[in-house]
């Protein structure tokens, strides 16, 4: 679901053939590979991340996909190497929410843009969720586990609503802001259980819940059962996207 939102955001922002794009906080390269398909063989994508393990996975995936227009490098938003050169676009997904000073981070990133270049970001926001008409206590509890963990780790859990403001404060001209909901129904499933499984060590480390409370091996089945029993639709995430242009 979120991947489809990201694809639409990249397309509507105008990322296209021949562009040179920097993907910050690229992780395993999910967004980098989406962009690589858009810019084509004449374009170039550079993904940077400060964690070497996902970068290694990203390089392996690029080789498996046969993508020669994508490279990955260890790097940090706070200290971009001048050797990276200038870009037509800077993209990021769920990156600004983890920055101690998102405005300062964006100002540094704009320095890597050519005049008139684009900044395209997608961020989550916990302000309006969870939401459902019928009571879904397990869903609410899982939502609490995820977001309290992220907040205790120092993230801004309202970055979606702050997105336009931080772009403007960084001196960028905002062209579009949107918000889309991740909707689940008794039959339409989001990978909530898989997300909690990946986050499990972090949830336990932050003291939000124990492994016994979460019972990860049955979690997805219990979530689906709760929605089915209530015949309920559930909104668990709000995804904000925006693009802005560097002022010449």
Automatic annotation (TrEMBL):
Segments forming domain Methyltransferase: 17-131
E.C. number(s) listed in UniProt: 2.1.1.-
Keyword terms of this UniProt record: Methyltransferase, Transferase
Domain of life: Bacteria
Keyword Methyltransferase: yes
InterPro entries: Methyltranfer_dom (IPR025714), SAM-dependent_MTases_sf (IPR029063)
Single GO BP term: methylation
Coiled-coil residues: none
Keyword Translocase: no
Listed GO MF terms: methyltransferase activity
UniProt-recorded name of the protein: Methyltransferase
Originating species: Sorangium cellulosum (Polyangium cellulosum)
Taxonomic lineage from the root: Bacteria, Pseudomonadati, Myxococcota, Polyangia, Polyangiales
């Amino acid at each position: 679901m979120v991947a489809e939102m990201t694809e639409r955001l990249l397309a509507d922002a105008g990322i296209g053939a021949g562009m040179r794009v920097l993907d910050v906080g690229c992780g395993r390269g999910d967004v980098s590979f989406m962009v690589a398909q858009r810019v084509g063989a004449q374009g170039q994508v550079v993904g940077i991340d400060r964690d070497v393990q996902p970068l290694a996975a990203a390089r392996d995936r690029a080789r498996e996909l046969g993508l020669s227009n994508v490279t990955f490098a260890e790097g940090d938003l706070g200290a971009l190497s001048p050797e990276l050169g200038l870009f037509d676009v800077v993209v990021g997904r769920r990156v600004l929410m983890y920055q101690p000073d998102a405005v300062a981070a964006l100002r540094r990133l704009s320095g890597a843009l050519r005049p008139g270049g684009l900044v395209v970001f997608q961020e989550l926001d916990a302000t309006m969720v969870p939401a459902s008409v019928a009571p879904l206590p397990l869903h609410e509890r899982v939502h609490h586990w995820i977001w309290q963990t992220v907040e205790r780790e120092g993230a801004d859990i309202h970055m979606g609503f702050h997105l336009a403001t931080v772009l403007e404060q960084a001196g960028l001209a905002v062209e579009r802001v949107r918000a889309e909901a991740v909707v689940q129904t008794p039959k339409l499933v989001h990978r909530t259980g898989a997300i909690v499984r990946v986050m499990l060590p972090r949830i336990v480390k932050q003291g939000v819940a124990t492994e016994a409370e979460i019972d990860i091996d049955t979690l997805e089945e219990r979530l689906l059962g709760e929605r089915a029993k209530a015949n309920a639709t559930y909104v668990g995430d709000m995804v904000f996207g925006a693009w802005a242009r560097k002022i010449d």
